[in-house]
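Review form for a predicted model. The reviewer records the input and the model, then writes brief findings.
Reviewer: anonymous (R2)
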Amino acid sequence: MQIPAVNLKPCLDATEPAWRQHLGELFARMHFILGDQLSGFEKEYASACSARHAIGVGTGTAAIELSLRAARITGPNQEVITSALTAPFTGIGIVSAGCRLRLADVDPETLLLDAADAGNRAGKRTAALVPVHLYGQPCDLNAFRGVARTLHAVLIQDACQAHGARFHRRPLTSYSPFVCYSFYPTKNLGCLGDGGAVVTNQAGIRKRLMMLRDGGRRGGQVAMVRGINSRLDEMQCCYLRAFLPKLAEWNADRARTASLYDALLKDCDGITRVRTSAESVNHLYVVRAARRNRLREYLSKLGIATGVHYPAPLHLMPAFRESGLRRGDLPHAEKACREIVSLPLWPYMPQQTAMRVAERVKEFYGG
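Model under review:
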């Protein structure tokens, strides 16, 4: 029996009538860019996030870049601090806006960006902070909001793995004017290609983002500012509108599987669970594993796929040498990258599948 890291088919099957209906409406109207499916999804997603506005864009990376552009943070003398432990696309979004990337270390238990370390590394040129809600776990937004206020910096949240998450029961938009999402297929809310959005409560930000995503235009053929071409595709919105009503149910299903893994692996020597709170939406189930690479090889031979999110911190990637950091400068992120492994997790995942994975993990460690 093969066990993939993620299985999208159950979600597609459960929502087929809805996405087929939306596709039928799309093809009947034949309006494939900036049409009714996008405007409908934007309203529905804003409501789901308890926010006033959602602006659909091409990717989560573009959501970060466009947020910085909307905040007029686009110069090489403007520094943006984010986590060293994240997908490279967080860093790419920052440098694509024209800013200088700065990196900080993570908390060794949660692996989330450490607000104190970020504050200590900030300076007069710090224009924005981008905390990453890694693996679906919200960062301490009260702490980051305090750091941002002290620095007079803009707080932009990378929530690309945190669809449906709240912090202290409040919407993420309660803490900053920009919340960025990705709809990559494996996300808690994914489409069948690339997609992203920025969620905000400010009408002025919405207006500027809508112009920036469409080449700096205001509905005509004249570019008023230097924007980019990054619009959420109508066809992807057909799937997103079908999936969105299931998001809470799917997140609850993820939480049940994560709790089962917790119970099955709690006494497993060699495995340490990454600490989460009840507000995590469990995008991934990540543990720190002794002899991580050998464990992955062992599971692979048994037909069990795993992942590593992520194998290298940003400051050790060639693309981000400009951060000015070397090996050993961010020890918690570097150590985590040598140990973390993501076990299979998806909505509708059978309980027996999680049990089999856990049994094989314990078997590897002699349990």
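Findings: The chain has a mean pLDDT of 98.
Further findings: Residues 59 and 196 are 4 Å apart (CA to CA).
Recommendation: see findings above.
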